[in-house]
Amino acid sequence: MENKDKYNAFSLLQFMWKWRKWLLIVCGAAFVVSAACSFLVRPRFKSTALLYAPRTSSVSKILLNEQNYNERLEIKALATVDETEQMLPFLNAVSIKDSLIEKYHLAEYYNIDLDKKGGKTKLYKTITNNMTVKRTEYGAISVSMSDWDPQRAYEMTLDVVRWLDTIKNNVEKERAQAAYDILQIQLDSVERAIADVNDSICEIMKHGVFDVKTQSERLTQQYAIAAAQGNTAAMQRIQKEQDTIAKYGAQLTSYQDLEYNFSKYHALCKQKMMDAKMDMTTIMPVKFVIDNPKVADKKFYPKKSLIVLISTLCAFVLTILVLLIIERVENQPDRKDIAADSQDQ
Question: pTM above 0.85?
Fold first, then answer.
């Protein structure tokens, strides 16, 4: 097996030496052409920003969470992997691309006719190809924009990072507004319920029933004293009051319990409404910027040396394959000669 490998390697070297002239010509031509083409490719520059997502961007949770303290809800707490992943769609949002198109007139800049069929799709695809948003291995988010102009690449990257706050805050404000409206409906409902319960309590109090427990204890003591004194008139009067309490006492207690529960629910709704209003009216940064983008002083594309190397190597391999095929065809016996040899035999 070792001798066969040596023989194959030696045969390949012999083959390359035999066709060295053509290999040198093709590889040299590929080198020159690829080098020339690499100079014709318009260089591109890239600016990159590095940021982390926060654990939460809810102002009410961050600032009004003293009673149920949670260190993960602190203003400086970093997001988990799942929350970082949730940030990526905001950076890839169509609204950000639309803002870039409008501000930098990208349709004219990329020479794309939006009136043609598929023009807008082509424009979005071009922006997507020039924009890179990915999560790094350490849980951060890398945002990059590339362009022929390093200043434009820097400004577009800066805008994407800045517009992230606007887009995410708008989405959260919309949800906070919906929550506020729902809570307002619930608050109105519970206020009407409290008003109805208070009316019922007032009606019962008109019968002289104010505090069932206290009044019952007082009347029981008075009845015992009147009985000990043999005061029949007082006993009858007290018995009448006790009958009234017995008639309306259970209803009063029930209404008072309802009023207490409704009041607690009313206070909770008011608190949640204040939280929702804070989230609705306050703008909170939704990211920690670790590295701000900078104006690139060196192009990232094309890599001329890599283009020349790969092109020359591909030309070399392809030339060897073509020469092998040519040599195999030339060395194959002619069919007529084979037929003649078979007839002679």
Answer: no
> Among positive and negative, which fits the CA dihedral 123, 124, 128, 133?
positive
Tell me the C-alpha distance between 242 and 21, whole Å: 125
Give which of 258, 262, 256 is closest to 213, Cα–Cα: 256
Place of tokens 């019922």: 200
List, for residues 22-43, the tens digit of each pLDDT value.
Answer: 778 888 887 778 767 766 667 7
Distances from the Cα of 231 to the Cαs of 223, 240, 244, 320, in angstroms? 9, 14, 20, 131
Which domains, ranges and CATH numbers included, belong to the chain? 1-41+303-331 (no CATH), 177-281 (1.10.287)
Of 190, 165, 169, 168, the closest CA to residue 272 belongs to 190
Q: How far apart are CA 96 and CA 79, in angstroms?
A: 22
Two tokens, residue 302: 């094309």
pLDDT tens digits along 216-259: 888 888 878 888 888 888 888 888 888 888 888 888 888 889 98
Query: Rounded to the nearest 5°, which phi and psi values hold at 16?
Result: -65, -35
